[in-house]
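Quick start: read one record
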Amino acid sequence: MTIESLRLDQPSVDGTVEAEPLLANLPQVLLIDTLVRQAYFTVPAGPNEGTEAFRIYYELHGRGPRRVVFIGGFGMGLVGWENQIRYFAAQPGYQVLVLDSRGAGWSDTPSGLYTTKTMAHDVLGLLDHVGWTADVHVVGVSLGGMVAQEMAVEGDLGRFASLTFVSTTPGRRWFPLSTSCHFVRLMITQDPREKLRLAQGLMFPTFWLDQPCKELEGHPQLVGRVRTNLDFIREGGLDRGRFTRLQTFNGFLAQLSASLRHWASAEQLQPLRDHPRVRCLILTGTDDRMIPCADSLLLASHLRAPTLVFPGSGHVLPLEQTRRFNAVLDRQFSGADVIGV
């Protein structure tokens, strides 16, 4: 395994300087053999981005010509994409970019409330930084899907090959009361196990949690510890928690503000809808308690995009439906038909 060692005095692709990689500070399990680079990208202070510079932590995996950036949801660190990193970056045709959004994971938590527009500028700046200016495939889940919408509105559509919006909304929808109560409890507890217990009730259907786990491929450390999907979520979440940091109270509020204030109208999305080359795709679950399926269908109507509905599935399709989710994305990135996968 060859990993680029970018030190404080070594310029990166665009001439800026990256922080030293975090390899020495993270558990060895994280160093899967697809890792090429892990470093910080500094978002400069500016009138549209806030008054302070801050750092975004990111990783590059694989060296293939087909480029995919995965953007996580509310409070989600890049470790949440582990199954997708292992699947795609292991293939010779792919290179994968994953990041911790501002206010989550190893990235900084700049002061103030965030918007999906400024978070989109973070990702667009990072894409420029790593030299991804064309043929980029974008996958965003939940809040990450809202950020991806803003990337299409704010950025050059010629940069993108496809955009896949997972369990997301064009905006102006408040959470149901029961979901809001869960959020308050998530916000005030700092116990990792209690956070997991509260989160799993929001993210996954109860009947799925009770089913035998069939997703242990690539997770040998969980063999013998896992019987049901609930075990998989609990034990896997605790394992992944060693690779990231708990979201701070400020980060929680700032990202929540971004998700609640997001709005992308049909008119704003029309250039993406009418683009002759960029492929759009909507993925959603029928039992999503966080962002109801109807919200994703509304986004699909704005974009007139093909939509795959996962019957009985909840909010976190990349984890709950890993095999089908990855297979659908593989076909989306290759330009093949995804309906019926």
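DSSP finds twelve helices and eight strands in the chain.
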